[in-house]
């Protein structure tokens, strides 16, 4: 069964208490093989980039078995607000 952007979004919101999640299917024909995500969560506070990415990878461990390419950007709410104002 193909993974959907909505499934990824819902799981990240639920498991990482994300306040904002963007998920884009970047597969050439939208076949759910490649995704790009932006995750904003207070759980990332005080964590290095690698730790944040590991948190996302752990959350999506089952889904990543079916995904061929996965790009992620992880921000704290403060970083997100700063980025939006630029």
From TrEMBL:
Domain of life, per lineage: Eukaryota
- Name any GO cellular component annotation: nucleus
According to the UniProt entry, its GO molecular function terms are:
2 iron, 2 sulfur cluster binding
Q: GO biological process: what's one of them? A: protein maturation
Q: Which Pfam families match?
A: BolA
Q: Which residues form a coiled coil?
A: none
Cite the InterPro entries for this sequence. Answer: BOL2, BolA, BolA-like_sf
Q: Which family does it belong to?
A: Belongs to the BolA/IbaG family.
Q: What is this protein called?
A: BolA family member 2B
| Organism whose genome encodes this protein | Seriola lalandi dorsalis
């Amino acid at each position: 069964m193909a993974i959907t952007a909505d499934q990824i979004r819902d799981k990240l919101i639920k498991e990482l208490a994300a306040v904002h999640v963007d998920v884009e299917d970047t597969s050439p024909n939208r076949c759910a093989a490649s995704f790009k995500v932006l995750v904003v969560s207070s759980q990332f506070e005080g964590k290095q980039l690698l730790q944040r990415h590991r948190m996302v990878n752990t959350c999506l461990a089952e889904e990543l078995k079916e995904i061929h390419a996965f790009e992620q950007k992880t921000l704290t709410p403060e970083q997100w607000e700063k980025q939006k104002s630029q």
